[in-house]
Amino acid sequence: MYVNNVIKGKLLESQELVLQASNNTKAQFANSPTLSKEIMNAVIDALTAHTTMSKQAIDSERVREGLKEVLLGPAQLYEALRGKAGGKELDRG
């Protein structure tokens, strides 16, 4: 998810990479120094963004409540967890 959603999304924003991908074979593109540089930039950007969001969540109960609403709504956390349990009741011991 991190690679496909976060890193790939950032790389797709690079016009230089779009141009290189359209003008080179996959093997040539894989050896591009620009690709290596852009991957590093994407990782750093993701770290910065995630650090900022995490700090906001640590500092604000309102932000944490908002996260919970998204997780229980569109993100379907509850349903995903129930799916992992095979839909059966778990012993709460």
Features:
93 residues, mainly alpha, 2 domains, 0% strand
Report on this structure.
- It contains 6 helices and no strands.
- It has helices at residues 2-12, 15-23, 26-30, 33-59, 61-72, 77-84.
- Helix 1 (2-12) packs across helix 4 and helix 4 (33-59) packs across helix 5.
- It has 2 domains: 2-59, no CATH class; 61-93, no CATH class.
- The protein is elongated and about 45 Å long.
- By secondary structure, it is mostly helical.
- The mean pLDDT is 87.
Give a brief rundown of this model.
The protein folds into two domains: 2-59, no CATH class; 61-93, no CATH class. The chain is built from six helices and no strands.
Layout: helices, strands, pairs:
Layout lengths: L1 H11 L2 H9 L2 H5 L2 H27 L1 H12 L4 H8 L9
